[in-house]
Amino acid sequence: MRLLFFDLNPSGHHAGYLHHLILNRTKWQIIQTISVVVSPDFLTQHAGIVADAQHNDVRVVSITEAENAGRLAARGGLAQSRAEWNLMEQYARQEQADEVLLMYFDHLQPAFWLSKPLPFDISGILFRPSFHYADWGQGPKTMRERLQSFRKKWLLRALLIRPELKNLFCLDPFAVEPINSWAGRTVARALPDPVAIRPISVDEVDQLRHELGIEPGRQTVLVFGQLDERKGIEPLLGAFARLLPDEQAGWCLVLAGPLARQMRPILETLLTTLTAVQVVRRHEFITDQFVQPFLVIADVIAVLYQQHIGMSAVLVRAAAANRPVLASDYGLIGQLVKTRQLGRTVDATNPDAIADALRAFGRGEWQADAGQMRIFADENQAPKFADVILRTMTDAPKETLTLLKTK
Question: How far apart are CA 373 and CA 252, in angstroms?
C-alpha cells in the first residue's frame, strides 16, 4: 500500500498527530510507502519531526511557496477548501497514493462533495461533529444556528454515499453510531485523542511549585494552554471575585500558556477585583516535555471552554495526572466528564455556578473517580491513536458500495 497523509496546518495538534503516526510507522510493514504532504512552514517549525520521518522511512513532501500562498489567499471557507483539495489531488497522484488520510476532514468536506470521482480512497479525521448535541439538550437555538446545523448534517450524510470514503476516524465517540447508521456500513470509528505522557519525578514537581512560588496551604486551580476568550477565564475570575476574602485566601490560580493579545487588557482589569487569591502567571509556550508537571501541581484543572465543539487534550492530561477537572457542561467535554466521572460540570458562562463549584470542592464535596481516570488516560495513549488509524487503513476490507438511501 501507498498511503498519503495530508495536512497543511503546521500549528497546534496538527504536527503532533502526524508525529505519532510517523513514530509508529515501522510496526506496519504491509505499507510500502507513506508520504506526508505539509506546508513549507512545517519544515522549519518542526525539523525534529522531519528528522524522525527520515529515520522511519516516511517521505515528507512540502507544497511550494507559491502553492501555499495561493491557498492562503483563497477567500472564504469554500474557496480555501477547494484550493487545498486541489493540492491534495495533485500530490496524491504525484505520490501514486492508494489511500489519502485527510488529517483535518472537517473543512475539506465541501470540496469533497463538489469533487469528481477519485482514483484513490479517502479517509479522514473528523474533529467537530455537533449534530448529536441536540440529544443532550444542546441543540441550535437561533434560526442561523439551525440552518448551519442542518447544512453540516446534510453535507456529512451526502458524503457518506461516496464510494471513495473508506474510513472516518472520529474524536467524538458518541458520533460514531449515528454516522454508521446513516451510511448503512461501518465507516466511522472512534479515535483516541493522542497524548504522550512521560514519567515525572517528585523533584520535578517540587521544583516547579518552588519556581511558581505557590504559597503553602492554598488549593491550586490551573488554566492551561492558549489563554484566549474561549478558555472561560473571564467567568472563572468572576467566580473568584464572588468568594469572600477568607475563601479567596485558600486559592491559588495558575494561568499557564501564551496570553492572547485581546485578553491582556481584560485580564489586567479583572485581576484587580481579586482581593486575596494568589495569581501565578506563566505566559509562554510550554513544550510537551514540561507540560505534565503543571497538571500535577494543580488540585483542580479548569476546562471551562465557552460553547466548545469537540475534544480537549487537557482532559486526557488531567486524567493521567490523577487530577479532577471543573469543566463546561456543554458538548463532548461535558458529556465525557459526566459519563467518565472525570470531575464536575457547570454552566461555564455563569460565574455564580463556578463559584459554588469551587466552594464545594474546597469543602471536599466532589472529586473524580481515580479508576475511571486511569482507564480514560490509558485509552488515549499516543500509540493507540496511530494503531487505530494504521490498522484500519491497512486491514479494513474493501467494500462494494451501493448508493444507500439516507434516513
Answer: 24
Long-range pairs for 111-116: beta carbons < 8 A, 24 or more residues apart: 111/78, 111/81, 111/82, 111/84, 111/85, 111/86, 112/85, 112/159, 112/162, 112/165, 113/155, 113/158, 113/159, 114/82, 115/85, 115/89
Angle between helices 176-183 and 143-159 (to 10 degrees): 60
Look up cell 465517540; give the residue: 173
pLDDT of residue 363: 94
- Cα separation, 41 vs 43, whole angstroms: 5
Amino acid at 386: A
User: Residue 207: how many CA atoms within 13 Å on its side-chain side?
Assistant: 7
Distance between CA 232 and CA 348 in Å, rounded? 7
396, pLDDT greater than 90? no
Instruction: Note the Cα 363 to chain centre separation in Å.
Output: 32
Q: Tens digits of per-residue pLDDT, 14-46?
A: 899 999 999 988 887 778 899 999 999 999 999
